[in-house]
């Protein structure tokens, strides 16, 4: 009996350590991916905001200079690091909680996806203010009136949550929940299928992130465009989700092609970002003996 109790305690400690490592690994993978892909992200943001061509967006950023190229990098760097830690860590925690309830009734892939949906919803509530600040920072029309991060935060604090930090929360909730559910539901099956084709573990993980990002980002892209347009401006009565969606649709001349302008960069950024994130996370999960936890 004593041996059984000791074994049970040891298993609980191992599970706790694995969860702790998931938070650390997720944070590191998010940090690396953000540094690499931020210039692409900023170009994409300009396209979403102004419906500009790739060349026009690149020329805008080039004219502003290299210093302003990384203007606004602090919020996404902090967000993606925290987001990565939160995303992978909480998903593992939720999965551990629901697995005993559904292991006989639902396949593991479905449990992974359900835990991902829950993680995405909580993530949206926690990180929507960071996305709001980031979008305000990256809008060049705010450079004069809101030149610093402190001035932006002060301005948003003076408004109601719905108009301030949590503007655009509904589309963010939908986008993050669906996206996280699909990512965690597809991640391991796609990686394992690629491994059986002779790819190395790192390449399999990277390609898994790439393929999943394509499947997720394309259908959810209009929501990202809507969020960017809702959050980029400060002040005034911007209206609710429906009003903003109708205004965006009219501004894009009721054209799906114009609504998806910047879609090529979405695929490129998502492929690089989630490919790196997935590869770094899976690698650390298998080779993290250097971590003290």
UniProtKB/TrEMBL annotation:
Q: Which GO terms describe its cellular component?
A: mitochondrial inner membrane
Q: What is this protein called?
A: Solute carrier family 25 member 53
The segments carrying the Solcar repeats are 21-97, 107-193
* Listed SUPFAM superfamilies: Mitochondrial carrier (SSF103506)
Which Pfam families has this protein been placed in?
A: Mito_carr (PF00153)
State the annotated membrane topology for this chain: Multi-pass membrane protein
Q: Does the keyword Cell membrane apply?
A: no
């Amino acid at each position: 009996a004593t041996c059984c109790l000791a074994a049970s305690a040891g298993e609980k400690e191992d599970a706790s350590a694995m969860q702790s490592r998931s938070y650390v690994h997720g944070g590191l993978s998010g940090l690396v991916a953000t540094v690499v892909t931020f210039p692409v992200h900023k170009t994409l943001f300009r396209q979403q905001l102004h419906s500009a061509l790739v060349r026009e967006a690149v020329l805008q950023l080039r004219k502003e200079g290299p210093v302003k190229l990384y203007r606004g990098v602090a919020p996404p760097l902090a967000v993606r690091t925290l987001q990565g830690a939160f995303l992978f860590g909480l998903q593992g925690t939720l999965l551990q909680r629901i697995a005993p309830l559904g292991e006989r009734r639902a396949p593991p892939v479905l449990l992974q996806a359900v835990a991902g949906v829950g993680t995405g919803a909580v993530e949206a509530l926690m990180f929507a203010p960071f996305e709001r600040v980031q979008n305000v920072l990256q809008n060049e029309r705010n450079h004069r009136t809101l030149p610093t991060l402190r001035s932006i935060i002060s301005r948003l604090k003076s408004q109601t949550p719905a108009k301030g930090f949590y503007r655009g929360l509904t589309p963010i909730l939908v986008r993050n929940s669906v996206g996280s559910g699909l990512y965690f539901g597809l991640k391991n099956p796609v990686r394992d299928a690629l491994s059986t084709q002779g790819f190395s573990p790192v390449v399999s993980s990277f390609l898994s992130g790439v393929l999943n990002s394509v499947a997720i980002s394309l259908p959810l892209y209009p929501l990202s465009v809507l969020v960017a347009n809702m959050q980029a401006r400060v002040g005034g009565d911007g209206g609710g989700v429906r009003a903003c969606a109708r205004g965006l649709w009219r501004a894009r001349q009721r054209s799906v092609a114009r609504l998806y302008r910047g879609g090529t960069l979405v695929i490129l950024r998502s492929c690089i970002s989630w490919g790196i994130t997935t590869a770094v996370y899976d690698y650390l999960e298998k080779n993290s003996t250097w971590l003290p936890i």
